[in-house]
Structures are given as C-alpha cells and as structure tokens.
Amino acid sequence: MKLLEFFRGKRDETANIAKERLSVVIAHERNKRSDASGVKHAVYLPKLKKDILEVIRKYVSIDDEDVTVKLEKSEDRDVLELNINLPDHAA
Amino acid sequence: MSKIIVVTSGKGGVGKTTTSASIAAGLARAGRKTVVIDFDVGLRNLDLIMGCERRVVYDFVNLINGESNLKQTLIRDKRVDNLWILPASQTRDKDALTKEGVEKVLKDLMRDKFEYIICDSPAGIEQGARMALYYADEAIVVTNPEVSSVRDSDRILGILQSKSRRAELNQSPVTERLLVTRYDAERVDTGQMLSVNDIVELLAIPLLGVIPESSVVLESSNQGRPVVLENDSAAGQAYDDAVARLLGEKRPMRFLTAEKKGFFKRLFGR
Q1: What is the mean pLDDT of chain A?
Q2: How is chain A split among helix, strand and coil, in percent rounded to 5?
Q3: Is B161 helix (H, G, I), strand (E, B) or coil?
Q4: Chain A partners of B188 at a C-beta cutoff of 8 Å?
Q5: How many angstroms separate the CA atoms of A4 and A10, rounded?
Q6: Measured between alpha carbons, how far is residue B5 from residues A85, B162, B203 in Å?
C-alpha cells in the first residue's frame, strides 16, 4: 500500500474541502442559534453597509465610519437602525 | 474556591473520558485536591479508565438520593495523592440526575475543599450532558480533527453559551478551551487532516492542547492508567502540558510536526 502510494504520488488534499464545508455549516448553525436566542447578528449587515456606502458616495463623499447599521431583535419585531453622518460641507 | 471544569464534546468516542482521567490525575499530581465525576449514567466507564472498577461500592445516584455519603462513595486513587473518583451509576433511569441533586453533591464537594471538580460528560446533548456542563466554570471541549467532531463541538459551545448556569444567571460566561485529540501531524502535512489552526479558526476558542494520535492511549486504557502518567510517551507529555496550561503556566505547543522519516520508512510504512 505504502509502496503504491509512493510511486503514485500525492493524494488529493481533502482537508481543505473539510474546512470549507465546516465553515459554511457552522456559520449557518450559529446564525440559527443567534436568531433563536434573539441576539443581534445578521450575516448580511456588513454587505448592506457596503452597498449603502456606495450609493451615498455617488452624491456625497463620506468615510466608512459615517454609516452605522444595527439590527435589534425583539419578540414581535426586528428594528433596523441606519445612521448616516453627513459632513458639514455637504450640499 | 473550587473550580468546576466540564470535559465535553457532543460527539462520542473522541476522548472525553481519557481526557477527564488525565486532566484530573495531572492536577492531583500537581498537588491540587481533585475529584473526577462520571456523568454518564447507565454507561459507566471512567472507573475502568481509572482502574478502580472493582472498588465501586456506591455511586453518584446513591449520593444524590442520600443512600450513601461522600466518604463512602468517593474512591481514592492508589497511585496519585489528592485524587478521588466519583463513579456513575449503572441505573437505566436517564433522568436520575437532576439540577438539585447535582448541585447538592457539588456543594458537598466544595465543602470538602476540593480545588478542582472535573465533570466527565456523556456524549450527546441530552440530560446527562446538560447536567455535566450546567454548573461549569470552565469547559474543555475535546475535538478530533474530523468534520463531525468539529461540528458537534460547535454545537456544544452553543449550549454552554445559552444553557449553562452562568448563561442563565447572566454571569461571566463559561471559560471555553479547545483540546484537539488523535492528532496525526503527518496526515496534516499531506493535506488529509484538518490542522490545529483550521480547527481553532473554525471554533474560535483558545487552544489548551494537542494530543498526538498514539498507541499508548489504548495501552493505558487496557491497564486502567491515566495516559498522563506515561511520562515517556508523547501523548502523556501533551496531557501534562495541557494540565500545566490549565494551571496558568505558559508552555509552547509540541508534537505539531511530523517526525522526519527516512527513505525506507517512507517506502514501507512504520
């Protein structure tokens, strides 16, 4: 067996596949958990923030920190809080 | 103050009992008064791993029900000072462990000035496993470099963060530590096994230690000796390192790289 392997060369590096599959399933299960426990966290928030920044920058130049996005979950409703700070000189 | 440490994993067969035995024996050897409790009601095995199976008279459930007292029930280890074992019962009643009952026993142990109380959790996420982790101050999450074990460890972390007493009372959270067992550095090198770094990254908790895959683990269990007592073996030394880190000592990780094999060894195996 070992002899064969030696001449056949390396096997596939399956550890990478394992890591990738695990990172997906663990992220998914953690999201479900935090949904159930009512804690913040939503995977789409960073991307949402990025999109909003891009849209605003079409008109005004602002820094990354000028936009904050927060999601608060309570029993009967979720509140998405969006805060945009415009610089003084913005017209 | 007593420290309650749960040894848990979700998945079975990853080395919880082996780890409980070695961590407890290591702490006792370091001079700390330690008791290790088997929470696997119905499937008692810690007694075998610790080599005291013929000295079991009373058990955890007897103690909870007031049918025996601590002195009658705890088994004193014959090799290591400061070490006691509390065996599980073999009853089939899986609800024999209650929060109140477990709390009573833990309080008795604290009154007896035990510095470390090691709770050996059963596999799964049912009553026994939940009771084992409920009162924990710290958790050692035992994980094999394998997909189902890593996923189940993450599941257990979720339970520690939401269903432990500390979580329920909004106290500071249970201190979580990762112990990777059955690590085969050679297979990691060839890309066939998840690396320690991969697992730490996935589970996002600090690393307590890495125990290399070793035939010594089976050989020690055959004889009912905690692996940590095998001073000459890599697995024993790795457990000793983990115990030292638990006690606050800084020790570099060892056994993370494969030993170099010569040409013939590579050709014909070990």
Answers
A1: 79
A2: 50, 15, 35
A3: helix
A4: 15
A5: 11
A6: 48, 17, 19
Mean pLDDT to the nearest integer, A8-34: 86
Q: Do B147 and A18 touch (CB under 8 A)?
A: yes
ipTM computed for the complex: 0.86
Residue B178 has phi, psi (to 5 degrees) of -100, 130
Distance CA B70, CA B85 (A): 11
Closest partner residue to B191 (CB to CB) among A2, A15, A23 is A15
Q: How many CB atoms lie within 10 A of CB A9?
A: 6
- Please say whether the beta carbons of B263 and B257 come within 8 A: no
For residue B122, give both structure tokens: 């059963």
B203 chain-A contacts, CB cut-off 8 A: 26
- Note the helical H segments in B120-262: 127-134, 147-163, 165-168, 185-189, 196-203, 215-223, 234-246
Measured between CB atoms, does A24 come within 8 Å of chain B?
no
Distance CA B157, CA B118 (A): 18
pLDDT of residue A40: 45
Among positive and negative, which fits the CA dihedral A55, A58, A62, A63?
Answer: positive
- pTM of the model as a whole: 0.81
B147: which chain A residues are within 8 Å (Cβ-Cβ)? Answer: 18, 21-22
Q: How far apart are CA B213 and CA B184, in angstroms?
A: 6
Question: Which residues of chain B does A20 touch, with a Cβ-Cβ cutoff of 8 Å?
Answer: none
Model pLDDT, residue A86? 87
Residue B193 touches partner A, C-beta closer than 8 Å: yes
Residue B208 has pLDDT above 60, yes or no: yes
| Pick among B190, B203, B205 to test the A interface (most A CBs inside 10 A) | B190
Nearest CA in chain A to B264: A3
Closest CA to B139 of B123, B125, B124, B159: B159
Residue B247 contacts residue B257 (beta carbons within 8 Å): no
Tell me how close the Cα of B154 comes to any Cα of chain A, in angstroms. Answer: 7
Who contacts B214 (Cβ-Cβ below 8 Å, separation ≥6)? B233, B234, B235
